[in-house]
Design brief:
- The structure is a single chain.
- This protein starts with a helix and ends with a helix.
- The radius of gyration is 22 Å and the shape is elongated.
- It has 2 domains: 218 residues, Glycogen Phosphorylase B (Rossmann fold), CATH 3.40.50.2000; 170 residues, Glycogen Phosphorylase B (Rossmann fold).
- The protein is built from 16 helices and 13 strands.
- The protein is 44% helix and 14% strand.
- The longest helix is centred in the last third of the chain and has 22 residues.
- The protein has a 7-stranded parallel beta sheet, sandwiched between helices.
Length: 408
């Protein structure tokens, strides 16, 4: 199954799959009827891959409301999360309210831990139902994660329109089981749209607008390598980079590092750079990733859907190391699509070692023309209007919901 490149080849600039659904339910208000804001509940949490696309769509809705774009309606947005992940920091920082409820995952665990998490489900359902009662959303939007299941099921039982955002070529566990209950599914890849049948709408993968404004960089020494292992860091990438540092110690004046480690490995990685005398900015989490992109000559990264979409939007050359435990190897498929497009190199984790990592990084850094070509190829894969397309779907569902409740 072809991943990232498939959506570009398939659309060719034409209307997306599901374009006929963008105006679904849009109805005019009766003369003299009070227009109340559209209420949207965004369910996103746990990892950056869930939170950042949801924030990109929420920011699009907020901008439309703020600037009174033609046809746009005022919009109230509430996020629903667990309160213990990145959402507790990122969502309020973006200016959106966050309600938290209890939730726990079930996939990939067993024994007493699975039983304990199963016992959390009734509480999740009850607390989610209370949020729906209090906020009275016109549409519920989810992008996967622990809370997507309870929230979308509760919304469906209350006949509240639901939109599922599926960023991967291969849907994850939660999104697969939600297929029967959602009204529409906004997907990044054409082949994924077909999995959702008439509900599937090809929109592309929403990323924050700042990535589209990352400027081009002249590739001259000293080169900057940005290492990203996902929002929570990657132990495998961190370990390999640390072991590779002796191999680049002689190039201390020619290479610099910006490294997002995650909380667990932060101290050990920072100390490793210091001991080798290498110039490095080490962060447990990078708040302003677009700014880090702008400074980087090459990005070493996992290949989650959000990471790949951000690389395309920013037009950055990358060396991708897919997470082997990703559902149905969707990260590997994302990475291979970038590789086929000439936008990235790929090292599978089973082949990852310090010698291979240093060899591939050095080959790219010493070939500025190739870096520029990879950047150009990455930009060709970008879908800068994805957040707008998803916002259109949300507004259509929300207005339709208001029309239904008004009629009754």
């Amino acid at each position: 199954m072809e991943a990232l490149g498939a959506q570009i080849e398939a659309t060719g600039g034409n209307a997306p799959v599901g374009a006929d659904k963008l105006d679904a339910g849009r109805g005019g208000m009766r003369p003299g009827e009070e227009v109340r804001p559209l209420r949207v509940l965004m369910v996103a949490g746990g990892t950056g891959g869930h939170i950042f696309p949801a924030l990109a769509v929420a920011e699009e809705l907020r901008e439309r409301s703020k600037h009174h774009q033609p046809g746009a309606r005022a919009c109230e947005i509430l996020f629903l999360g667990t309160g213990r992940g990145l959402e507790a920091r990122l969502i309020p920082a973006a200016g959106f309210p966050l309600r938290t409820v209890a939730a726990a995952g079930l996939k990939g665990i067993g024994g007493w831990r699975k039983l304990r998490n199963l016992l959390v489900l009734p509480r999740s359902a009850l607390e989610t139902a209370l949020v729906l009662r209090d906020f009275r959303p016109d549409v519920v939007v989810a992008i996967g994660g622990y809370l997507a299941g309870p929230a979308m099921l509760e919304a469906a039982l209350k006949d509240i329109p639901t939109l599922l955002i599926e960023p991967n070529a291969v849907p994850g566990f939660t999104n697969r089981i939600l297929t029967p209950v959602v009204r529409l599914a906004a997907v990044a890849f054409e082949e994924t749209a077909s999995l959702y049948g008439a509900k599937g709408c090809l929109t592309g993968h929403a990323v924050r607008k700042a990535f589209s404004f990352v400027p081009r960089k002249e590739h001259v020494p000293p080169f900057t390598v940005l290492v990203l292992g996902g929002s929570q860091g990657s132990a495998a990438i961190n370990e390999c980079v640390v072991k590779s540092l002796p191999l680049v110690a002689n190039d201390v004046e020619r290479v610099r590092f910006i490294h997002q480690t995650g909380d667990r490995d932060y101290n050990a990685v920072r100390q490793a750079y210091q001991e080798r005398g290498l110039t490095a900015e080490v962060h447990a989490f990078i708040e302003n990733v677009p700014e880090a992109f702008a400074r980087a000559d090459l990005i070493v990264s996992r290949a989650g859907a959000t990471a790949v979409a951000e690389l395309a939007a920013a037009g950055k050359a990358a060396l991708l190391i897919p997470f082997p435990g990703a559902t149905d190897q969707h990260q590997l498929e994302n990475a291979r699509a970038m590789e086929r497009a000439g936008a990235a190199g790929v090292i599978e984790q089973k082949d990852l070692n310090p010698e291979r990592l240093v060899k591939d990084v050095c080959e790219l850094l010493t070939d500025p023309a190739r870096l520029l070509e990879m950047e150009s190829n990455a930009r060709k894969l970008a879908r800068p209007d994805a957040a707008s397309r998803i916002a259109d779907l949300i507004e259509g569902l929300a207005v339709g919901r208001q029309s239904e409740t008004t009629d009754h």
